[in-house]
Amino acid sequence: QVQLVESGGGLVQPGGSLRLSCAASGSIFSINAMSWYRQAPGKQRELVATITSGGSTRYTDSVKGRFTISRDNPKNTVYLQMNSLKPEDTAVYYCNAYILDAMGYYRSYWGQGTQVTVSS
Question: Residue 94, Cα to own-chain centre: how many angstroms?
Answer without folding.
Answer: 6
